[in-house]
């Protein structure tokens, strides 16, 4: 009898242990589910706030592009931008510290596309005059696509010393990239020698002329009759520079 009782007790204890273990397992599962449920709303709120912040920033940038397209940079007011974006002044300054920072953000949106376009120039130059002229047409199309930014960038260089420094820095990086990409004339602009410094000035002047002419064509300041002439002359000048 004692043995049978011990067996029954052992069985009961074993069942009890297994039942308790099962209960603990289920409780842990429920606890985890509850924890996940508590986390989901927080994660959803965070995702929502992130999307809302991104949408607000995009709305401000869109409004700024429109305001800058219709007003000179010095005359464009922050108030006009945040009103058109449909946000408050406080919200505007949560995203941008100043009008200049906003202008930099617009420039930063298109700078990578410009760099990628110039990265394709060495390959275009391998096809001679026709390849370079086709590349110039793509550069004009780039300015047409971003015509809201072209006058803004030109005015920023006139009125904002910090922006002039950024343009110079980006131009230097562009010259280096073209040199590293296989354009010998741009490669000779690298280094500290007097000859390299002279070549660098030549390269900078050429790139500035190309950018200014393509921007003018994009704005319609050059007639349809003269546009092919401009493209041909610019292509010849660029090909000659690359060959020198």
From TrEMBL:
<feature type="domain" description="HTH tetR-type">
    <location>
        <begin position="54"/>
        <end position="114"/>
    </location>
</feature>
<dbReference type="GO" id="GO:0000976">
    <property type="term" value="F:transcription cis-regulatory region binding"/>
</dbReference>
<dbReference type="InterPro" id="IPR050109">
    <property type="entry name" value="HTH-type_TetR-like_transc_reg"/>
</dbReference>
<feature type="DNA-binding region" description="H-T-H motif">
    <location>
        <begin position="77"/>
        <end position="96"/>
    </location>
</feature>
<dbReference type="GO" id="GO:0003700">
    <property type="term" value="F:DNA-binding transcription factor activity"/>
</dbReference>
<dbReference type="InterPro" id="IPR009057">
    <property type="entry name" value="Homeodomain-like_sf"/>
</dbReference>
<dbReference type="Pfam" id="PF00440">
    <property type="entry name" value="TetR_N"/>
</dbReference>
<keyword id="KW-0238">DNA-binding</keyword>
<dbReference type="InterPro" id="IPR001647">
    <property type="entry name" value="HTH_TetR"/>
</dbReference>
<protein>
    <submittedName>
        <fullName>TetR family transcriptional regulator</fullName>
    </submittedName>
</protein>
């Amino acid at each position: 009898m004692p043995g049978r009782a011990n067996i029954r007790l052992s069985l009961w204890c074993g069942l009890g242990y297994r039942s308790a273990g099962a209960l603990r397992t289920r409780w842990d599962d429920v606890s985890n589910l509850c924890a996940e449920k508590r986390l989901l709303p927080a994660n959803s709120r965070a995702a929502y706030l992130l999307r809302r912040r991104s949408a607000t920033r995009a709305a401000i940038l869109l409004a700024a592009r429109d305001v800058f397209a219709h007003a000179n940079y010095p005359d464009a007011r922050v108030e006009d931008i945040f009103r058109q974006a449909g946000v408050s002044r406080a919200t505007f300054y949560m995203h941008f510290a100043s009008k200049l920072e906003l202008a930099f953000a617009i420039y930063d949106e298109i700078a990578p596309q410009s760099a990628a376009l110039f990265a394709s120039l060495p390959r275009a130059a391998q096809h001679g005059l026709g390849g370079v002229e086709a590349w110039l047409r793509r550069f004009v199309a780039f300015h047409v696509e971003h015509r809201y930014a072209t006058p803004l960038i030109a005015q920023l260089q006139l009125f904002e010393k910090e922006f002039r420094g950024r343009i110079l820095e980006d131009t230097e990086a562009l010259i280096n990239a073209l040199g590293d990409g296989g354009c010998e004339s741009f490669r000779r602009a690298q280094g500290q020698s007097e000859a390299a410094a002279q070549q660098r000035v030549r390269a900078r002047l050429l790139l500035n002329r190309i950018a200014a002419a393509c921007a003018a064509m994009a704005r319609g300041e050059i007639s349809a009759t003269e546009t092919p002439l401009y493209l041909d002359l610019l292509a010849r000048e660029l090909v000659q520079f690359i060959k020198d």
